[in-house]
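Reviewers asked in the last cycle whether our approach scales beyond single polypeptides. To address this, we selected a multi-component target totalling 404 residues and predicted its structure end to end. The input consisted of the following lines:
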Amino acid sequence: MKLYDTKQAPNPRRVRIFLAEKGIEVPLVPVDLASAQNRQPEFLKKNPMGQVPVLELDDGTLIAETVAISRYFEQQKPEPPLMGVDPLDRVVVEMWQRRMEFKLWTNVGSAFRNTHAFFKGRIEQVPEYGEVCRKAAIDALPWLDAELAGREFIAGARYTIADITALVSLDFGRVLGIKIPPELGNLSRWYAAVSSRPSAGA
Amino acid sequence: MKLYDTKQAPNPRRVRIFLAEKGIEVPLVPVDLASAQNRQPEFLKKNPMGQVPVLELDDGTLIAETVAISRYFEQQKPEPPLMGVDPLDRVVVEMWQRRMEFKLWTNVGSAFRNTHAFFKGRIEQVPEYGEVCRKAAIDALPWLDAELAGREFIAGARYTIADITALVSLDFGRVLGIKIPPELGNLSRWYAAVSSRPSAGA
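The resulting structure, written as structure tokens, was:
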């Protein structure tokens, strides 16, 4: 088994944190995005989307998409559960994981793609849309702060994949000037807690 | 149990098709998006995102997000399986479901939101970005056609949630002038097959 990985993009970090929480070690194969290695024919055979991460199983099966890869490991090694502890909790975690994707992850990612120099010439950028997304991510923070008033983690009393998505979104958002305002006490408390877990260094 | 629903948006149709394939009937509660009923305080208590569909269980538990609602029913009534038949297949289906979301669903949805009169004054529209997304959805069609050369459905030999996401994306895309070119024979064959299932009328 091997995981095609890069430190140059945030999606692979979501998987590395997930693996660190599970205590699973997988050999990493670095893919260099700066030289567009992910757009070369050899890599496109692994994932026609040209994206990392990609998990390659020993029988050659290729699994792309961060959440699908995460679910593979959740099934292989259920403890500690990061995607729910019972059928209803699995659904609640999925709801929150998707809310974090739509409110934070997608907005931060679209802001980066549409405004950052890295994507100049790689995609058709629309900076005005990037700014709309940057504001939308910032606007989501007070809402998330209020949600966290009643519970320790985003999907409830346990650390889950929803926390990983939110943490990586906010860390990545710093390059766009997105910061948690100190007056958002619940969100600041949550961020300090998830950032101090050893997995955050993954 | 009840499902907050509307015919005015495509996400609820994804759940209705899922339920029709499962043979599950759930009482529907219509939510009128035209009069912004989804933005009223009463509905925001059901889903702070202001979006349909939302599933309300008999004990008052509220589940939002189309794929989370779908997973609830997949767990409640596994047959016929729409999210995978075994652990590895579940991961493969999730990969394809997400690819359909990123390549078709998100692009069609962003094109609609950023260009259509319905969203004028409701959100900050960036028509230039909408056009980028419309083109991206159209550009994905030959790729999907090639993928379908070797198999009957999007995630393999069985109809799954990935087919539902792709079907609803393409039907919704018609309002933006997105059509399957007749020379894309595999995609046309797939589209005819999934459209002729009774569930497509849901």
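Chain A has a mean pLDDT of 97. We regard this as preliminary and will revisit it once experimental data from Aim 1 are available.
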